Amino acid sequence: MKNKLKTIRPIHLATAVIALILAVSTPRSVRADESVKTIDITAKRFEFSPNQITLKKGETVKLRLTTADVTHGLFQRTFKIDEVIEPGKTTEVTITPQTAGTFTTICDHFCGVNHGSMKMTFVVTE
Amino acid sequence: MKNVTDRRQFLTMLGTSLGIGVLYTAMPAAAASGETSEFFNFLGEANGERPRPFSFVQLSDAHVGFNGPPDPLGTKAFEHAVELINALPQSPDLVLFTGDLTHDTEDKDVHAQRMKQFLEISKRMKVGKVKYVPGEHDAGLDGGALYREFMGESYYSFDHAGVHFIALDNVSRAKPEVGPDQLAWLKKDLARFPKTAPIVVFTHRPLFDLKPEWEWFTSDGDDVMNLLAPYQNVTVLYGHIHREHDHTEGNARHLASRSLIFAFPDPEQAQDKKPLPFDKDHPFRNLGGRLIKEVEGHASVSSFPIDQVQLSLREFHEINGVQQIMKPIHL
Predict the structure, then answer these.
(1) For residue B166, which of B176, B154, B174 has the smallest C-alpha distance?
(2) pLDDT confidence band for B285 (50 / 70 / 90)
(3) Angle in degrees, CA B325, B327, B331, rounded to 5
(4) Greater confidence, A34 or B225?
(5) Residues A90 and A64 sit within 8 Å (Cβ to Cβ)
(6) Domain ranges of chain A
(7) What is the rounded distance in angstroms from the CA atom of residue B310 to the CA atom of residue B304?
(8) What interface predicted TM-score (ipTM) does this complex get?
(9) Cβ <8 Å between B141 and A112
(10) Contact B29, B6 (CB under 8 A)
């Protein structure tokens, strides 16, 4: 009997610890996700809408990307954004800009004759 | 093999900026010497062909069919370049055209007509060989199908006078990249060469991050350069940026040619990638690349003005090969 108790007790203890962790961490995770600002960006030949977005340095934002026509890309080297935006799909990317300034962002998926002019700007303020 | 090398220059490429293209001239500085001759024989065995003097031209970005602002010249600069090349006292062996032969249009028949017009002008050049790679304006809309129909394969390699030339296509995929298939091909292509082989890569986009926000980069350019890194004599010629640029990284020298349609501004100075204004009094200003004037004999670099380009192939003690050094600039 003593041996049985020794076997069961650690299992119960571990289960209780896991349950406690889940109970504490899950609400925090949900709260954190709810606090992230989401920005919708629509691509269409040969522009992004909006074509300028102002962000705060250090603030995390989620970009939700869709296309109104063909496949496009969203590329920004500093922010390490390199996404493909496909018709019928929503692409999400989360960024936390660490540098203030103006950052030109381009479509890097060839989308037509004026592809080279398709760009938008992130303005990051202090 | 007995080491016959000294710390002396033995093969030189020289040139000057005349505003229409880039003509490289390669010539042995001491070809008559017995030691150099023996060394050339060694290179011939190692590289597959014995080095000999030759010259080649780089032209880029003709955009045949483009007729928008700021440039009302159409094909005039391209045709002017052809005339100047044909007027050279000694015809170059090769012309390398680094992409954007045509300007794109979503009307396939019109684009095909532009390809035909490009070839009609290009074929006027009285040179041994003309080799091409596509630009995104040639190949972006259809993955390079029309380009291949008119020009053949978009990536390949060949040897000429002891130099290995590699044409890379970084425009036919939707993103600015070479892609895994071509990287695998490149690795295999390079495998047969000694690390000292002189290699000239020609492609459209820069293979390094020149200005990513202007799409002046190749996303897997680092992978290409890592494959080339063990090779001591690498020169990369490219177009796309419509202006001259000189960049050295590791063993490789990257050189851009001017365009034959309009010029882009200095990326260090300009906020936007807008063509420079057209100057009707100087219609060819900022156009073309560099025409490197062929010289006779063993001319020294100092005999040329500062706007000339020197590409030297050097041999080094105990390496049994050549070191390719280019000293252009102040263009």
Answers:
(1) B154
(2) low
(3) 150
(4) B225
(5) yes
(6) 1-35, 37-125
(7) 9
(8) 0.72
(9) yes
(10) no
Instruction: Using alpha carbons, select from A124, A68, A69, A79 the residue that is nearest to residue A106.
Output: A79
Q: Give the end-to-end CA distance of chain B in Å, rounded to a whole number.
A: 41
Task: For chain B, list the strands marked E by DSSP.
Answer: 9-16, 22-28, 54-59, 94-98, 129-133, 156-160, 163-167, 198-202, 233-238, 245-249, 252-256, 308-314, 323-326
What are the structural domains of chain B?
18-28+56-297 (3.60.21.10)
Nearest Cβ partner for A110 among B140, B214, B217: B140
Nearest-CA residue of chain B relative to A103?
A: B213
Interface of A with B in 2-61 (CB under 8 A): none
CA dist., res. B140 & res. B137, Å (int) = 6
Q: For a pLDDT cut of 70, what percent of chain B falls above it?
A: 67
**CATH node for A37-125:** 2.60.40.420
Exposed, middle or buried: residue B189 (CB in 10 Å: 0-12, 13-18, 19+)? Answer: middle
Q: Which structure tokens are listed for B224?
A: 């290409």
Provide, rounded to the nearest whole percent, the portion of chain A with pLDDT above 70. 73
Q: Phi then psi for B128, rounded to 5 degrees?
A: -60, -55
pLDDT at A23 over 70: no
DSSP-assigned beta bridge partners for residue A119: A106
| Chain B positions touching chain A (beta carbons under 8 Å) | 104-106, 136, 140-141, 171, 174-176, 209, 212-215, 217, 219, 273
Q: Which residues of B touch A48 (CB under 8 A)?
A: none
Supply the pTM of this predicted model.
Answer: 0.78
In sign, the C-alpha dihedral spanning B118, B276, B176, A47 is: negative
Q: Among A66-75, A116-125, B242-251, which stretch is predicted with the lowest mean pLDDT?
A: B242-251
A13 token code pair: 């203890």
Contact check, Cβ <8 Å, A109/B136 = no
* Cβ(B286)–Cβ(B263) below 8 Å: yes
The sign of the dihedral angle between the CA atoms of B78, B80, B81, B87 is: positive
Of the ranges B1-10, B34-43, B87-96, which one carries the lowest mean pLDDT score?
B1-10
Q: Smallest Cα–Cα separation from B139: which of B177, B104, B97, B181?
A: B104
Buried/exposed code over B98-119 (b: 16+ C-beta within 10 A; e: otherwise): bbbbbbbbeeeeebeebbebbb
CA angle B217, B222, B223 (to 5 degrees): 125
Amino acid (one-letter) located at B321: G
Closest CA to B209 of A61, A123, A16, A77: A77
